[in-house]
Amino acid sequence: MKKIFLLAIISIVAVLFLFIRCMNTQTKETKSKTLIVYYSRTGNTEALANHIQALTGADMFKIETVEAYPEDYPELTEIAQAEKNNQVRPAIKEEVDNIDQYDAIFIGFPIWWGTLPMVMATFLESYSLEGKTIIPFCTHGNGGVDQGFIEVQKLSSKANHKEGFSLKGIHVDSARLDVEKWLKAIQVID
């Protein structure tokens, strides 16, 4: 009788163990899918995107304009200012395939004239982001984030938004620990 009782207890424990293990596997498999979308002219925003990708395992999509911006900085700033003043929406070379599969989207950009480059507005207006979690990040010279994150919220008003991350471009190479701290603070990673 004791042997039967002991076998029954062992069987119940084994079934519970398998059930819990199965549930954990399902949780990992149904984990939300994340995308990092970014535009980078000098490589600073791309380096920041790479830090985020290394820590989250998210997919990446680099935005490229159909018409390339000039390499000459003064000429670039004139074009960027004209695009901002005239609310131009530069065309993007490629689209994100099946954006519906993503629950969270990081949006990365450099600050131009106190806000995001207008190509980012093109991106944000091109997709239905309702119900998705949008997480902005940016690089800048000396000006800080200014209106960049506010514009992201305006252009994706039906999405959920998490606190963004802003970094002076010259510090991007040594920013991995700061990025990790931010990702933990907004509960993207443990």
What's the arrangement of secondary structure elements?
Layout: H1 2-29, E1 34-38, H2 44-56, E2 59-62, H3 73-85, E3 104-110, H4 118-126, E4 133-140, H5 148-155, E5 160-161, E6 165-168, H6 176-185
Parallel strand pairs: 1-2, 1-3, 3-4, 4-5, 4-6
Helix pairs in contact: 2-6
Describe the model.
With 190 residues, the protein is an alpha/beta fold. The protein has 6 helices and 6 strands. The protein has a single domain (30-185), classed as 3-Layer(aba) Sandwich (Rossmann fold), CATH 3.40.50.360. α2 packs across α6. The N and C termini lie far apart (48 Å). Residues 5-30 have low confidence and may be disordered.
CATH architectural grouping: 3-Layer(aba) Sandwich
Order of H and E elements = HEHEHEHEHEEH
What summary fits the major beta sheet?
Answer: 6 strands, parallel
Low-confidence stretches: 5-30
The helix tally amounts to 6
Q: Strand percentage, roughly?
A: 15-25%
Average pLDDT level = 87
What class would the helix/strand composition place it in? Answer: alpha/beta
| Alpha carbon gyration radius | 22 Å
**What is the CATH level 1 assignment?**
Alpha Beta
Straight-line distance between termini: 48 Å
Q: Give the overall shape.
A: globular
Instruction: Assign a percent range to the helix content.
Output: 40-55%
How many domains? The number is 1
CATH homology superfamily name: Flavodoxin domain
CATH topology: Rossmann fold
Number-wise, the strands total 6
